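chain below, 288 aa
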Amino acid sequence: MSWLTNFVRPKIRALVRKTDVPENLWDKCPGCGQMIFHRDLEANLRVCPQCGAHMRIAVKKRLELLFDNGTYERAELPKVEFDPLKFRDRKRYSDRLKEAQSKTEEQDAIIVAHGLIGGLKAVVAAFNFDFMGGSMGAAVGEGLVAASDLAVKERAALIAIPASGGARMQEGILSLMQMPRTVIAVDRVKEAGLPFIVLLTDPTTGGVSASFAMLGDIHVSEPGAQIGFAGARVIEETIREKLPEGFQRAEYLLDHGIVDLVVARKDLPTELAKIIGLLTKQPKQEAA
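prediction:
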């Protein structure tokens, strides 16, 4: 019995034991269902090599992609009151904020950076979808205002890159107030004779799409990005009609004149530099 227990059984268990494989080695494409090795996916800028589906990309990775040599400077953003309404649902809002800050190592859902794109000065206000779904609260509103002020000061193009589920419900009316504030911030840039470019990414919805995200001089989008206000199901239930195929996707909006360009992720730096060059009279500079 000891021979079976001590020798045979361990051998059998070793043969049938499942090999421990890290779960994050492979990603499944939401478009075609293809399993993609994570290193290959990252090397391809998180675009499926089979069907071209553009998956969401980390905000810092996006900034590195856009700016020349991946170098940029971050702007320090104004501080806002922490949990102004002392809101609580299943969790305290303050706890949700702390969790998001710990997870992303960021203070809120926006990063403002400035540098060169194709040798031309640009200020970029990019949303971080990993921070509470990129929702827009007071801190995000302050970030957009700071970005517009910086663009005017630097005489640079302002590029907004929304990736958001909309207004942040835990801040109530304070969140909704950011809609007119961001519109005014965009107006300042336009009044200064500077271009405001919006790069629409997946998803751009709710109060973000209902404010500054639809006020660009040029609207560029990544392929397949979801862009709209209310969800498709809500719209169908309201109008009691079936929506067209691809409704609220970048290609559909391009066909209907809401989006000006749909550009693959790898081509974005070149296309944005071309647009900035056409809309400004900046001399080209060399990245440091």
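The chain has two domains: 19-55, 56-279. The beta strands are 26-28, 35-37, 73-74, 110-117, 120-127, 157-161, 196-200, 218-221, 261-262.
thats it, cya
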